[in-house]
Amino acid sequence: MNDHGAMTVRIEASCEVRHLVEFADETVEKTLTELPAGATVPLQMESVGARGNAWRVTELVGVTTEAMANAAAHDDELRQRRGSETEHRESTEHVEV
């Protein structure tokens, strides 16, 4: 998360970069802020049309604290083995923080 409350993420499947500038609520924002760099999580997003490549996170899909910790550990393991691998307007995407 940068000083302006925005976060840049990479869509895992397409390597597209998106800028998250709005969040469904403080819990979603706080959860994303606490994720380690490189973690992969499924997000429901919608475009914030008037702001270019700006997106609003509407939901963390099926994400619990335990699931986030497991995902971060799994992502670290995958990156070590083969390096990082990397969808559109309103959809659920796996993004790398």
From TrEMBL:
Residues 1-62 form the DUF7999 domain. Residues 71-97 are annotated as: Disordered. Residues 73-97 have a biased composition (Basic and acidic residues). This is DUF7999 domain-containing protein.
